[in-house]
């Protein structure tokens, strides 16, 4: 019976360790996400691996990508405006096509 209590104590220590490290919360959130999926994936293990692997790195990289997208959209808008302005300036220097030139 003493052996059982000793191993139970180790189990409890391990459980507290997992809790403190956030492992239990991560596992629970991934399993809840899998449960809430309307179209269940063919391979549940791949789903768990994908979501656990991305859990730590996703927020930082996702935010960096959002910032980059916003900057690129802004740059694209500026370039489109510049392109429009340059086309207008170019059209001022081009002569209109002559009607008899094509014949």
What does this structure look like?
This protein is mostly helical. The protein has a domain of 40 residues. It is built from three helices and no strands. Helix 2 crosses helix 3. The longest helix is centred in the middle third of the chain and has 50 residues. The protein is rod-shaped, with a radius of gyration of 31 Å. 0% of the residues are buried. It is found in: Nucleus. Belongs to the AMY1 family. This is MYC binding protein. It comes from Myripristis murdjan (pinecone soldierfish). Keywords: Coiled coil, Nucleus.
Pick out its properties.
0% strand, mainly alpha, 82% helix, 3 helices, MYC binding protein, rod-shaped, 103 residues
**Low-confidence spans: pLDDT under 50, at least 5 residues?**
none
Largest sheet data: none
Helix content class: over 70%
Rg (CA only): 31 Å
* Order of SSEs: HHH
What is the averaged pLDDT score?
Answer: 84
Number of helices: 3
Give the helices and strands, then pairings.
Layout: H1 2-21, H2 23-36, H3 44-93
């Amino acid at each position: 019976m003493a052996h059982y209590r000793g191993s139970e104590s180790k189990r409890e220590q391990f459980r507290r360790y997992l809790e403190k490290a956030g492992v239990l919360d991560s596992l629970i959130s991934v399993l809840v996400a899998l449960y809430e999926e309307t179209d269940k994936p063919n391979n549940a293990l791949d789903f768990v691996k994908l979501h656990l692997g991305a859990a730590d790195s996703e927020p930082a990289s996702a935010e960096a990508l959002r910032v980059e997208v916003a900057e690129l959209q802004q740059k694209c808008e500026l370039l489109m405006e510049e392109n429009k302005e340059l086309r207008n300036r170019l059209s001022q220097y081009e002569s209109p096509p002559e009607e008899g030139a094509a014949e």
